[in-house]
Structures are given as structure tokens and as C-alpha cells.
Amino acid sequence: MLRKILLSVLGVALIFGAFVFAKYLIDNKHKPKPVIPKVVKTVLVDTVKNGTIPVIISANGNLTSKQRIELYAEVQGIFKTGSKLFKPGQKFNKGETLIRLDASEYYAGVQSAKSSLYNSIASIMPDLRLDFPDIYPKWQAYLNNFDLKKSTPQLPEITGEKENYFITGRGIVSAYYNVKNLEERLSKYRIVAPFSGILTEALVTEGTLVRSGQKLGEFINTSAYEMEVAISKSFANILKVGESVSLTSLDKTKKYKGNVSRVNGSIDATTQTITVFIEVKHQDLKEGMYLEANVNAEKVENAIEIDRNLLLDSEEIYVVKDSLLDVISVKPAHFSSEKVVLKDVPDGTVILRKPVPGAYAGMHVKAANTNVSTTDSVQ
User: Among 35, 139, 319, 345, which is least packed, fewest CB within 10 Å?
Assistant: First the structure.
């Protein structure tokens, strides 16, 4: 009997002990969470100091020669070989022959007409000596200066009515203008360079038959080039002819100086832009080169310039107040590809210099002033 009582007590004791041990294990299973130290980001800031910000408009385009002519034949003939080859890349000075066509047959006809004019005048000289002795000397001087190898000189001035009837009635005036017409057409057998430049296109070769109206090639002036760019209509009243322009090559290795030569008077209805022509001169330039232009459009007073990625979509920027981030509203005055000009930012305001990932209003930060004014980065 006693043995049963002891075993019962021992069993109850074991069950109680197991319950207490299980409760202990459960209570010790929930370990306290580790305390994560609060990280305060260090940010680069600037102190606002408003000033005058020049607005620079960036545009790009290809160069074209300021002087370009397309060569066309107005007469027909065999293309004769000249002192220089008629090939692309060939340079010609002003006044040099670009193209010369065989005009031997036409030249003979011109000389025949000139000879007929000379004979017509010579045939009336006896009558002039007898009937018009006062005008005879000037016509005699004209004949003396008449050279078949040179251009036909202008007829003497006809002063009197009788002289006019006499000269015109003999067909002298009509014969003269017929000769001048033939001489003018003869000059078209030779095309000379109107300026010093280079041949960029040649569509015929020496010895071929050139027909009237046929295109022969293109000739450009290599001393001056123009670049056509499209600028926003908002700058239509600001851009002026003669404005200095800085140009850079595509690889940013070379810089050139140009100026605004022309500004179109109309605005493109589709793009709402205005066309501006920039003239640039340099011996290294070639037609078709791609350049980027920076045009000084205007100056914005009492403003600052910052990176575009610092401006929020809500037209706000982050500022630092008592080690906390906050936002203030701003007024963008001009956007460029990388920068934005802002107004209505009070002097002394501490703003971010570089974007902060995950930034939000109320975020704790530590300011690291770079001692660089917001206007120092203006180009």
C-alpha cells in the first residue's frame, strides 16, 4: 500500500517537473531582437547664392558650304581636257576654268558675224564723210579700234535723229546686237570658277559629249560654312545676328568659334521652332561635319543652376534643415540637357549637391559642405 502511494507521488512529481521544464523551454525560445544601429547618411550640400545665370542653348547639325553652285551645261559640245582634272576633290582658284567645251565651229560663226558687222560699217564710211562730216570721226575711230580677236566694242553713241535713221536703216544696230548675242552664247562654252573652292561632284569626264541642260557637277567654297539649327520659339525675340557661338566636334576634341549669320523670320508650325544659321570659318572644317553649338540666348537674374536630376517631378528640391531633409517649391526658368535654372530659391538655403538614393522628407542626414557655390558650376 505504501509502495503504491510512493509511486503515485513520484509520478505526479515527474509530470509537474516535465510541465515546468517545458514551460521554461517555451519561455526561452523567443530571444530579444537585436538593436540595429540607426545609420545617418552623409550628403553633399551647397549653400544657395543667387546670381546672374547665362542661358546657353545647345543644338547640333551638319555643316554645309555657304557658297555652293550646281554646274549645268547651257550649250552642247565635246568636253575638252583642261589644265586640271575635272574630278571630285580638285581645287580651283577664282577665275580658273572649270569646264571647257569644244567651240571651234561656233567660234567660226561668231567671227563671221563680226566680220559682217565690220564690213557693214566700213561700207557706210564714204557716205558719212560726205553727208555727216561731224560724226564721221567717231565712227572712223570705232573702226580703227575694232579687233576681230577681241570682244566687239560698244557702238558709238547716236546723238541726232538723222544719224539714227541713217545708221539704223543700214542694219548696223541689229547686226551689232546679233554679234553680242552670239558672243554671249560663245562664253557659255567655258565655265570659270566664281570663287576659290573645291569640286565635290563630277558627273562628266573629259572627251565625252555634253548636252545642253545636263548637270556637270557641284562646286563649293571651302572658306566659310554654315550650320542650320532649330531653336525653340521662346528665344525668337532674343537671338540676334552676330551673336557669338561656341562649336565643338562630335568627339569633343576640337572647338571652333562661329556667329549667328541669319535668323529665319517664320516659326515652323509643326515643331514650333525657329531656324538659325550659324557661320563658322576654319581650315580644318569639311562639309558634312557634325558639330554641337552652344548659343548664348539670354541671362536670368537672381537665379541658380543645378543638375536636372535634383529637381523633383513636383517642381520641388530637397533642402537640409537641422540635419533633416525637407522639400521646397521652386520655379524652373530654363531647362538644358543636363542643367536647370531655378528662381525663387532664398539665399542661404542649404540644398543637395548630389542626389540621395531613397531620399524622403524627414530623413536624417549629415551635411558635408563642399564649399562650392551653386553658381560655380555654370559654364
Answer: 35
- Is this prediction's pTM over 0.90? no
What's the confidence (pLDDT) of residue 25?
A: 65
The dihedral region occupied by 16, where left means phi > 0, alpha psi between -120 and 50, and beta the remainder, is alpha
| Helix pair 161-169, 172-187: axis angle to 10 deg | 60
Integer Cα distance of 28 and 34 in angstroms: 16
Cβ atoms 84, 96 nearer than 8 A:
yes
Regarding whether 196 and 71 lie in a shared domain, the answer is yes
Q: How many domains does the chain have?
A: 4
State the number of CA atoms in the 13 A half-sphere of 178 facing the CB: 15
Spatial CA neighbour of 351 closest among 311, 307, 318, 316 = 318
Q: Are residues 232 and 258 in the same domain?
A: yes
**What angle separates helix 172-187 from helix 104-131, to the nearest 10 degrees?**
160
Question: Could you tell me if 330 and 303 are in contact, meaning their C-beta atoms sit under 8 angstroms apart?
Answer: no
* 314 found inside a domain: yes
Report if residue 38 sits inside a domain. Answer: no
> Cα(347)–Cα(51) distance, rounded to whole angstroms?
10
pLDDT digits (tens, 9 = 90+) for 221-236: 999 999 998 888 777 7
Q: Domain boundary at 300, 316, 338, which?
A: 300
One domain for residues 133 and 200: no
Domain containing 97 equals 67-102+189-220
DSSP state of 364: B
Q: Are residues 243 and 115 in the same domain?
A: no
Q: From the centroid of its chain, how far is CA 371?
A: 38
- pLDDT-derived band of residue 374, with 50, 70 and 90 as boundaries? very low
- 11 assigned to some structural domain: no
User: Are 79 and 209 found together in one domain?
Assistant: yes
Do the Cβ atoms of 87 and 203 come closer than 8 Å? Answer: no
16 found inside a domain: no
Which residues, other chains included, contact 279 with Cβ-Cβ below 8 Å and sequence gap of 6+? 66, 224, 225, 226, 258, 259, 260, 261
Strand 365-369, strand 41-47: pairing: parallel
For residue 104, the one-letter residue type is S
